[in-house]
Amino acid sequence: MSLQQSNAADEAADGRKDKLLTVSNVERTFQVGGAPLHVLKGINMELRPKQLVMLRGRSGSGKTTLLNSLGGLDMPSKGEIWFDGRPFHSMNDHQRTLVRRKDIGFIFQAFALMPLLSAKENVELSLRMAGVKKSLWKERVEHCLAMVGLEKRMHHRPFELSGGEQQRVAIAKAIAHRPKLLLADEPTAELDTGMAAQIMSVFQTIIRTEEVTICMTTHDPTILEVADHVYEMVDGKFI
Ligand code: ADP
After folding, report:
1. Residue 153 within a domain
2. Ligand 1, atom nearest to 233 Cα
3. Distance CA 94, CA 88 (A)
4. How far is CA 7 from CA 81, 87, 209, in A?
5. Does 238 fall in a domain?
């Protein structure tokens, strides 16, 4: 590497220091029926610690594809994604899985809870998957369920909880292993306005107390005002 190249690399690394995630010129192309489908067309964005960032756009605009790339579930076809100083775009599947298990939590639209397990057992499952020592589980489960206001519903199973409560268990599950980044795909889509507002209030609380950064997709205009930043997506690009 020449001195000039090395200086440029140092400057780029300096620029990323106060950011949890930096996305540069990301493209994603799928092959559909032998033809390329360009879904992400040059995305640039950054997430700083303790931010609440929203990706807004119509169905099919590429929000979920981008969210999956941010969490290392999908790989960009071109461009770079730096997560916490590490190059996600050049890691193999195993390396990305390790980062994900330790530092990233996911929340999905349809809650994704194990139906036969209680709220407590669902959170424990997440701690087991993340390799957290069993001696720490009790404190962590109680803390996370209290954080989402469900400490008294610990032994309830999903069918004994409302939609909003199930989503709060899903949040407790997603933050149990203390991730730095929480990614949520349409977390309020199946909820009425009151329950959606509760979820946003829980998000604000956990950003403060757990020091997590949240990036979520939405097409609900009523919740945008609580975001630190909103990226508007149209046809694979930000406008
Ligand atoms: P959004 O979340 O905004 O609704 P998506 O990211 O789910 O958008 O999808 C954007 C486009 O990419 C859609 O046309 C979808 O069909 C396509 N797409 C997503 N994933 C794949 C895939 N694995 N293979 C082929 N096409 C895909």
Report:
1. yes
2. 3
3. 11
4. 20, 18, 37
5. no
- Residue 231 identity: Y
Please tell me the residue having the least CA distance from ligand 1 atom 11.
Answer: 60
Q: What is the CATH number of the domain that holds 130?
A: 3.40.50.300
Test site for ligand 1: of 27, 30, 231, most ligand atoms within 8 A of the Cβ = 30
CA 150 to chain centre: 22
Structurally, the chain folds into a number of domains equal to: 1
Regarding an ipTM greater than 0.85, the answer is: yes
Answer yes or no: is 239 within a domain.
Answer: no
Distance CA 203, CA 5 (A): 41
Question: Which residue, by CA, sits nearest to atom 25 of ligand 1?
Answer: 30
Q: State pTM to two decimals.
A: 0.90
Is 236 among the domain residues? no
Distance 235 CA to ligand 1 centre (A): 11
pLDDT tens by residue, 15-48: 566 789 999 999 999 999 999 999 999 999 999 9
Of ligand 1's atoms, which has the minimum distance to the CA of residue 68? 6
Instruction: Give the residues surrounding ligand 1 with Cβ less than 6 Å away.
Output: 30, 32, 37, 39, 57, 59-65
pLDDT confidence tier of residue 223, bands split at 50, 70 and 90: confident
